[in-house]
Design a protein that fits this description.
With 764 residues, this protein is of the alpha+beta class. The protein contains 17 helices and 33 strands. It folds into three domains: 192 residues, Aldehyde oxidase/xanthine dehydrogenase, molybdopterin binding domain (Aldehyde Oxidoreductase, domain 4); 306 residues, Aldehyde oxidase/xanthine dehydrogenase, molybdopterin binding domain (Aldehyde Oxidoreductase, domain 4); 158 residues, Aldehyde Oxidoreductase, domain 4 (2-Layer Sandwich). It binds pterin cytosine dinucleotide and dioxothiomolybdenum(VI) ion (MOS). The site of pterin cytosine dinucleotide has 36 residues, from helix 11, helix 12 and helix 15. It holds the Pfam family MoCoBD_2.
Length: 764
């Protein structure tokens, strides 16, 4: 859990230790050497193994479960069914809405999707549990199901009024517009597919529960476990020091967690449950499939008069997921008239959920494809049309942007890509039998803000320790918090140890919505500032301090040493100073909560998402922005598409660590290439099963699919966004990639593909 720094900043960059420096990941060596212990690798005395049995139908009822043979199988400790598992309480959702006072059973009798957990085996070994699970015989009364959005029975669904956004008279303005574009854009179900599958070890000691589980949100998940089992929040400890990716799928306590923790309680032994790769496809829902219609009315110069947008996303029979499809549509371009509405359709699926830029990602596919269509319709360059319709303020909130370096992003990206050399007509650029296409699209993601808490300790040996229950799933939290503490206190980053991933540490909200870096650098900065103030205060005022006689107002701490600003007087290491005043540590807790916050406010902030500040709070509208310039090569005979060049310019405000931010952006872009060309969950139309529920058939990009990607930072510090001036990074990169590729494919081939992914059968 402890991450020791090894110096490995770029030699070329003297400031690697400071915020803004290119310090390499401080958790890198632990991960590469195998020293990093992931959740389910804990070795516990008496560990038992749980394996899930899942429904093979998508809709109906469990008629009976025959467990006799499984029960008698070697090593079996318990067979859990809805009849034998202990009863839990319903937990609040992530907004903290008080739940109905109803029992909760994580094993289902009423089946609403294929892959629902109906039983579980707990055995002495994993192999015994797997063998016994195969002996459980479940019979069903099957009823007709709606397998996905394409199902004829799916219909138009339920209107979500809260999603409606309207100004002006969009329909009238469209009717009178000289140029009109109207098209439908579809995205399929996609999956997070993190390398590390979902899984956990649950361990009860009396009424105290410890859960080792990969988690994007320790405090939120701890709350859910506490509510399920009716124990105080403080009794649940979540431990998650290392996580093999989440992409949105690991922010909530899920049904399988309830099964494992119930089994552990019933047996009085720690229980480990790890999902198989196929189970992860129904263990958490992936990104909802979406349908959008985008209608643009414009004048002959391509100046937009009206946008009418209608969106539909799928949700489950019992749960509610709204993928906000109007989120980019309503802010990217200036328009005097606008209307956006959204429905959700219930299908027999696990409830879909958050996947990297939920909402913004499919939303951008609609509007950024549609504006490209408008560009060809009026004969204006696709980059030029975006500039003509540039939104100088937030068209929806009617507020100034806190910062919007999108024009700069277009300029920098176009320059580096060589956009000016583009031939305007489709099918006009080629290399042998490869048609070459150049496409552009913009992207954006809102700045979500909440509050965080951290402890910073200056220890007797002069080292600094940071603790927070926030997490690092690969995005770089350990590293940027080490840099923040190092710079603020005035020590080398080597001398900082960052401890994350334990809910016993000071609390933190969700690592989702690209908010954690801004929140936690703010909290650590505050805690470190107050630890430094204490240190300097002691040095000045403690009669035992060598600085006492100086009668200085302030002292300077740099490089782990403390001295007077004028250079007269003593020059001591922090360790020497602490020893002179007889202290073994200085400790400060810092949080970014408003000063008058109550204990209840804090609990609510850290365990729900209800307290996040709206991005349009106050006078400004806060977002990060990007522009992607992409080259594709389409084989004229085979219809295969290769992305051959990507240049993206991005505005995430100030970067805490450019090396890591660039890596995050590239990761998002790579995921966007997968979304554009490969990824699609395919459902069996008879039983509603996900057919390609593995990484051989659910295609994600490999190295061979990825060209050189160049990313350019065009951000400037945005102090309306966060304490240190950064905006979100983690999700921004994916937004706009799929439409940039679709636009490039149109430029290459003259074929407009409005359904993702862009596979060869759609092109030939
Ligand atoms: N950063 C920076 N400068 C900024 C903001 C961020 O240098 N102004 C860098 C830092 O290294 C920081 C990282 O970018 O650790 C991400 O910061 P932020 O944008 O605040 O996002 P979060 O820390 O909240 O991380 C969550 C975000 C989301 S929501 C998804 S989804 C996602 C993502 O991060 N999933 C990921 N990136 C991922 N990266 C990996 N490796 N694995 C995942 O599952
Ligand atoms: Mo990210 S989808 O908000 O975890």
């Amino acid at each position: 859990m402890t991450v020791h720094n090894i110096r490995h900043g770029d030699a070329s960059d003297g400031g690697a230790d400071s915020v803004g420096g290119r310090l390499s990941r401080v958790d890198g060596p632990a991960k590469i050497t195998g020293a990093a212990k992931y959740a389910v690798e804990q070795q516990l005395e008496g560990l038992a193994y749980a394996v899930l049995v899942e429904s093979t139908i998508a809709s109906g009822k469990v008629r009976s479960i025959d467990t006799a043979e499984a029960q008698a199988a070697p090593g079996v400790l318990k067979v859990l069914t809805p009849d034998t598992i202990i009863s839990l309480r319903t937990a609040a959702d992530w907004f903290g809405t008080p739940p109905p006072d109803l029992p909760y059973c994580p094993l289902a009798r009423d089946i609403t999707f294929s892959g629902q957990h109906v039983a579980a085996i707990v055995a002495e070994t994993f192999e015994q549990a797997v063998a016994a699970a195969a002996l459980v015989k479940v019979s069903y009364d099957e009823t007709p199901s709606i397998v996905d959005l394409n199902d004829a029975k799916a219909g138009d669904g339920i209107p979500i009024d809260a999603m409606t956004k309207e100004w002006g008279d969009a329909h009238a303005a469209f009717a009178s517009a000289p140029v009109r574009i109207c098209a439908a854009y579809n995205t399929p179900r996609e999956y997070q597919a993190p390398m590390e599958p979902h899984g956990l070890i649950a361990h009860w000691e009396g009424d105290k529960l410890t859960v080792w589980e990969p988690s994007q949100w320790l405090d939120g998940m701890a709350r859910t476990y506490a509510e399920w089992f009716g124990v105080p929040f403080e009794n649940v400890r979540l431990v998650s020091p290392y996580i093999g990716g989440g992409f949105g799928s690991k922010a909530l306590a899920l049904t399988h967690g309830a099964v494992a923790a119930s089994a552990a309680k019933m047996l009085g032994r720690p229980v480990r449950l790890v999902m198989t790769r196929p189970q992860t496809f129904t263990g958490y829902g992936g990104r909802a499939a979406t349908r959008q219609t985008v209608t643009i009315g414009a004048d002959a110069d391509g100046i937009i008069q009206s946008i009418v947008h209608r969106g539909i996303n799928e949700t489950s029979m019992g749960g509610m997921w709204v993928e906000p499809l109007g989120s980019v549509t309503s802010i990217m371009y200036a328009t005097p008239n606008f209307s956006s509405k959204q429905n959700v359709v219930r299908v027999n699926s696990v409830v879909p959920g958050a996947m990297r830029a939920p909402g913004e990602n499919p939303s951008a596919f609609g509007i950024e494809s549609a504006i490209d269509e408008l560009a060809y319709e009026v004969g204006v360059d696709p980059l030029e049309i975006r500039l003509r319709n540039y939104a100088e303020q937030d068209p929806e909130a009617k507020k100034a942007w806190s910062t919007r370096q999108l024009r700069e992003a277009f300029a920098a990206g176009a320059e580096r890509f060589g956009w000016a050399r583009r031939t305007p007509e489709p099918r006009a650029m080629r290399d042998g039998n490869q048609l070459i296409g150049w496409g552009v699209a913009a992207g954006t993601y809102p700045v979500r803000r909440a509050y965080g808490e951290a402890i910073v300790r200056i220890l007797a040996d002069g080292s600094v320790e940071v603790e927070s229950s926030s997490i690092d799933m690969g995005q770089g939290t350990y590293t940027i918090l080490a840099q923040t503490a190092a710079e603020t206190v005035g020590v080398p980053a080597d001398n900082v140890v960052v401890k994350l991933g334990d809910s016993r540490f000071p609390r933190a909200g969700v690592a989702g919505g690209s908010r954690l870096a801004g929140v936690m650098t703010g909290a650590v900065h505050k805690a470190a500032t107050s630890a430094l103030d204490q240190l300097v205060g002691l040095a000045i005022s403690d009669p035992r301090s060598p600085f006492h006689t100086l009668q200085a107002n302030t002292l300077v701490v740099a490089n782990g040493r403390i001295s007077s600003p004028r250079g007269d007087g003593p020059d001591l290491s922090i360790a020497e100073l602490l020893s002179s005043v007889g202290r073994d540590r200085i400790e400060a807790t810092g949080d970014t909560m408003p000063a008058n916050s109550t204990a209840e406010d804090r609990y609510k902030n850290y365990t729900t998402i209800a307290m996040a500040l709206p991005h349009t709070e106050g006078d400004y509208s806060r977002h990060s922005w990007c522009a992607h310039f992409i080259e594709v090569r389409v084989d004229e005979d085979f219809g295969t598409v290769r992305v051959s060049r990507v240049v993206s310019a991005l505005d995430s405000g100030r970067l805490y660590n450019p090396k890591l931010a660039e890596s995050q952006w590239k990761g998002g872009i790579i995921m966007g290439i997968g979304q554009a060309l490969l990824e699609e969950g395919i459902v069996d139309r008879r039983h509603g099963r996900i057919v390609n529920n593995n990484l051989a058939d659910y295609l994600v990009p490999t190295n061979a699919d990825i060209p050189d990607i160049e990313v350019i930072s065009v951000g400037i510090p945005d102090l309306h966004a966060s304490v240190l001036g950064g905006k979100g990074v983690g999700e921004l990169g994916i937004v706009g990639v799929a439409p940039a590729i679709a636009n490039a494919v149109f430029h290459a081939t003259g074929k407009r593909i409005r359904d993702l992914p862009i596979t060869l059968e759609k092109l030939i």
